Amino acid sequence: MLLRKRLIMKLNKENIIKNFTTKRFLVVFCLLIILFAGLFFVYSFYYANKVYVGVYVNNKNVSGLSYSDLYNSLQVKSQIFDENGIEYKYEDTIFNMSPQFNNLNPDMGSPEFIFFDNENTAKYAFSIGRKNIFQRFATLIFTNHVEWQYSLEEESLKKALKDNFSQYEAIFKYPSLSYDGADMIINAPVPGKEFDYDKLVQETKRKINNFDFSPINLYLYEVESPISLDSANEELENVNKFLDQGKVNFKYEDQSFEVSSSTYKNWIVFSGDKKDVYITFDFDKFRVYFEKNISSKIDEEVQNAKFKISAGKVNEFQGGKDGKKVNIEKTFEVLDNLLKNQKESLDIGDIELVVDITKADTNTKNLNDFGIEEIIGTGESDFKGSPKNRVHNIKTGANMLNGLLIAPGEEFATIQNLLPIDATSGYLQELVIKDNRTIPEYGGGLCQVGTTMFRTAINSGLDITQRRNHSYRVVYYEPAGTDATIYDPNPDLKFKNDTGSYILIQSRIVGTKLYFDFWGKKDGRKITVTKPTIYNIKKPAPTKIIETTNLKPGVKQCTESAHSGADAYFDYKVEYFDGRETKSQRFSSHYVPWQAVCLLGVSAASSTDNGSGSVSSSTESSIVTPVVPTSTNP
Fold first, then answer.
1. Model pLDDT for residues 584-632, shown as the tens digit of each residue
2. Terminal CA-CA length for the chain
């Protein structure tokens, strides 16, 4: 009995200890939960208006920064680029890639080759951890890397680099033929030297991603000819067989164009690779001859039918005409393949020219089937203060588009319908500054057409498929954020006719205002367009004076007025009646500050341009403190 009591007492004691331990554990656990919740609450409260822990932008820790501070730091970094560009260097040649490509004319449509989207980058970084409590907790454990959002015009960058550094390149040369009287001579191949432009683009991206704007060095790479001198010698027999033919005859319908061996013998070159060598023509020489002697006798521009509204009906006032154009590249391929595949006799016979036919739009359709009933949208812009040639080009461009029909489902490309942008279409030239040279160029004023078309397409509720703003603000295109730059061949303004009916373009000029009316058939869609929000205003640098021999000595002509830099956006929403998903789009624009630019005429003796029209300039720069958007709650 005593033993039993002791055992019971022992068990009770153990249970008491166990219960106490359990309760202590639960108390401690609850306290830890409370402590953790408290700390997490304090953490959430402390970072309520700051970027959470573990967030990086391009490998830079931005934790603890407010949205304004983060946006401002990105603005400062991108502003360094806006003011200084990126420097590329080869030996003693230094090229600074500025955002505007040194094209000082708003109507030339010169876009920035890079645009930093600092607002959306800051918004995305700031939003991490704010979706839910689990995401916020995850930021304490895992890092979140955000890339600096920007768009890079790679082809424009490559072109600018080639324009400045191609002088140092040498394209490799195949073995070639030359003639010393009747004697044929084979010249040895010559290795070439080239820059790797794709690699330079990638290096540019790498530096941007690391906030690094230090100079980028260029290196030439040697490129060998794939054809050896021995391989070329083995092909000599076929060269002689080809020359023995005496002529090559190109045909199209009832036309025939004969090219004698005395003409084409100097075009013959070797092509192929180490395993397969054959003779062909030098394409550039082939093209030049074709354009002058053959294509010019066949090519005809397409002429689309044009229409106008008269007495409430659509009437044709210009008939359509199909266009045709010799496809020189494909014709060359036909000849090239014949020379490759007929080595035994090289009797190539007559060669049919490859001619592309472009059908004129709406040249056979019954006018009553177009379904055009009313104006579906109108856009306008004011070109007040424009010089004479600019006004002329605006009117010419507007007339080019007037009366055109846009078929249902068609994507309309503005530039394509303004071509050719030269004297044959009636355009006049304007003096522009491009790549540090003053040159006459066609097309000044056409951005007025592009901007007005953009506004008309927006007011018609159409799907905008391509649009770019100008590099800087121009008075002709105010309010900021509603402009569209166009330049042959790019950038272009493109939009799609998604109304299900034909759209007829009608242009009109009233005083100094340009209008486009889109006629069609309304389908009940509801269009909402907000007024543009303009922020981040930046002052321009002092006036730049550029010396040129294109003006009389002492004559001063200011081609550019000062423009403040800014960012702008407006929101565009289209709601459809037929159940299609509502389309919402924000059009954002970035404008760099632009100093006033004046040309000053100098004599050739005092200028560094040697009378070529080149310019020299002096300029001052100023750093402007960035201004963040008024809203800090993205």
1. 999 998 887 877 778 888 887 665 544 444 445 444 333 333 333 433 3
2. 79
- Listed in sequence order, the residues at least 6 apart from 499 whose beta carbon sits closer than 8 Å to its beta carbon are 376, 408, 460, 462, 520, 521, 523
CB 462 within 8 A of CB 498: yes
The one-letter code for the residue type at 349 is G
Q: Regarding beta strands 503-510 and 513-520, do their DSSP bridges make them parallel or antiparallel, or are they unpaired? A: antiparallel
Q: Residue 116 burial by CB count (10 A; 0-12/13-18/19+): exposed, middle or buried?
A: buried
C-alpha 403/C-alpha 315 separation (Å) is: 10
Q: What is the pLDDT averaged over residues 17-44?
A: 70
- Specify whether the CB–CB gap between 341 and 349 falls below 8 A: no
C-alpha count within 13 angstroms, C-beta hemisphere, residue 505 = 28
Provide Rg for the chain, Cα atoms.
34
- Using an 8 Å Cβ cutoff, are 519 and 404 in contact? no
C-alpha 454, offset from chain centre: 17
- Measured distance CA(504)–CA(372) in Å, rounded: 8
**Mapping DSSP to helix (H, G, I), strand (E, B) and coil, where does residue 416 land?**
helix
Strands (E), 52-92: 55-57, 60-61, 86-90
Are 277 and 234 in contact by the 8 Å Cβ rule? The answer is yes
CA angle at 608 for the pair 602 and 612, rounded to the nearest 5°: 80
pLDDT in tens, 190-201: 999 999 999 999
User: pTM of this prediction?
Assistant: 0.62
Cα distance between residue 75 and residue 36, in whole Å:
37
Which neighbouring-strand residues pair with 350? 249
- Cα–Cα distance between 607 and 205 in angstroms, integer? 38
SS3 assignment for 160-178? HHHHHHHHHCECCECCEEE
Please state the separation of Cα 466 from the chain's center in Å. Answer: 10
Q: Is residue 112 within 8 Å of residue 85, measured between CB atoms?
A: no
- pLDDT(79) > 90: no
The DSSP secondary structure of 543-568, one letter per residue, reads: PEEEEESSS-TT-EEEEE--B-EEEE
Cα atoms in the Cβ-side hemisphere of radius 13 Å centred on 313: 8
From the list 518, 506, 508, 533, the residue with the least C-alpha distance to 462 is 518
The whole-number pLDDT of residue 511 equals: 95
Cβ-contact 566, 536 below 8 angstroms = yes
Compute how many other C-beta atoms are within 10 angstroms of the C-beta atom of residue 594: 24
- Spatial separation of the C-alpha atoms in residues 17 and 15, rounded to whole Å: 5
| Residue recorded with tokens 């093209």 | 287
Cα dist. 333→276, 282, 329, 354, 459 in Å?
17, 12, 6, 10, 47
